Amino acid sequence: MRRPYTKLNVLNEFNMKEPIMIAATSRFNQTIPTGEQLSSPINEREVDRSVRNLLRALGEDPDRAGLRDTPARVARMYTELLAGVGEDPAEHLGRVFQARYDEIVLVRDIDFYSLCEHHLLPFYGKAHVAYLPQDKVVGLSKLARTVDTFARRPQLQEQLTTQIADALMEHLDARGALVVIEAEHLCMKIRGVQKANASMVTSAVRGVFKDNTTTRAEAFALLRRTS
Length: 227
Hints:
Structural class: alpha+beta
Helix content: 25-40%
CATH class of the largest domain: Alpha Beta
Number of domains: 2
Largest sheet: 7 strands, mixed
């Protein structure tokens, strides 16, 4: 039987813009490394050529001063934005630690940026990720990197949400996983219906979180906490 939830450890309590982890131990108090470059299968030369052709098709001159270096810049940009293409989440979630811990682990407010696969326009927001471990846990930064692995590729928000949850179940052998994503989509803000204030919320619930209403309610209560 699962032990009663006894303690909250809220990282960065007074700065809610940063990722926040809730767990019953301070062992997880670690920062998220930044600046690591991930390999990508993107062919920058081909992207460069394609952007030049696109500019011509749009009635522009890709050789004029303001656009001369744009194709190369765009190629480098896509290499960065789509760094998750071909990346295996096991690279991050496979690095686990044995731990006698069977309570909820929840990381809130993980910033992410992705590209809508329908229009290749950005959508961005925050992911909230929870799991119930089973004798092994993963570092805080690996959860954030898993979100990036799936976000940094042409995506749908619905698909992004389920992929993260399924990866937690598969690679952590978790007893349960819960993922909530809140995002804003430029394809809805600047084109089409042009609803600038609209946002989208999706969730994916797996394992114990899906089967046990009390455990699910506990996780959502933690997710809503502001201090």
